[in-house]
Amino acid sequence: MTDTTTSLPVYERRDVPEQHRHLRTMTELKKDRMKPADGQEPVALLRVYRRGHGWGEFPLYDPAGAVKMRPLSAKQRQAMEARRTCPECREVRGYVVYTRCSECRARAQQEAQDRQARTCERCRREAGAALPKDVHGWPACDHCRIRYAICKQLADEREIVWRRTCPGHPGSDCTVQTATDDEVNEARAAGTWLGPRRCPPCDEAYDRWYEAQRHEAVENERRAEEARRREVAELSAWAWDVLADPGAVVLDTETTGLHDEARIVNLAVLTVGGDVLVDTLLDPGEPIPAEATDVHGIADADVRGQPRFGDVLVQLTGALVNRRCLIYNRAFDVGRLRHELTLHYRAVGHDDPAASVAAWLESMRFEDAMVPYSDWVGEWSDYHGDYRWQPLYGGDHRASSDCRAVVDRLREMAAGVTASV
Q1: Helix, strand or coil for residue 206?
Q2: Alpha helices, DSSP H only, in 299-369?
Q3: Can you give the pTM of this predicted structure?
Q4: 59 and 82 share one domain
């Protein structure tokens, strides 16, 4: 191979031809205290792979044209000797020593291997000579090998007894021998051995126990189904009761997000019969994030000039007071109402806004519709150990539409009660 930029031949170490075997790199020349003469050009390039650096090309010079380097001063020789002195054995090596020389490193490795061969793997006691290896290939002292052999023999004997003895049934401790060692060995050799056999009395007792367990499992399943039917019937009756209440209403909000400081941008209160008591956009007093607009479609231009929450508080209070109010995910919407009420009472100068908010919320009758509907659907989640919450299908993420979707879910729950009535 030839370097196209310099027209010099490029060799790897194993490919250097015979006529160029005498060529030396700069490092090899320095070892002999030589350097290229002024104006001396390289004859070839040596291609070498260095770990951490990759492939590199180094010039090769003819030592016949090189010149001697200036002799080292006493200080330089002393510094070079200090760098090449092993701090462990204090021997001067032909290379720079960092932590320990290769001879000391090899000796330490050999000592570690010898120590490991003398140390019992089980009790970790160190002997004076290399220990014999156990069945697993680890060095072990006589005490540990004998102890292991005895334990192994006892375990084998227990297994032999177990194979030929009746295993009994739950609650019993039978010791009747149901097979001989020859029968067990023949069955194992033929691949038909499935475990120790039971004696006839234990076999009959086991069948009775198994049948009792099966009947108990069937009874438990029947009880669980009956409890589930009662639960569904109670939830359906609850939904029927809500729909039968002419004063019951449904509330829903759309907000600027899901965080604790999110503001309400759309508020609706509808009766379960479909009458609209409140349905308005609200100016939150802050920009609506784009991700919130992507959900409910309400942008800053839609709420510009719309009333603030405080402007509709009297109307909202009149629509909710003394009424049963259903909310899908009650915790979130009540949290948004709490935040808006706090900001409003602070703005109008109430002495204790928190007390005013608490009094307003305590005067209302909020009920969650999401948990009863999710329990009625009955989609179990092993991860949560409870019924999985169901999303509110049927709405378009506008407050009034979601209120109607809640009423539809209530009618779905109450359909069985309606049919029976």
Answers
A1: helix
A2: 300-303, 313-320, 330-347, 353-362
A3: 0.61
A4: no
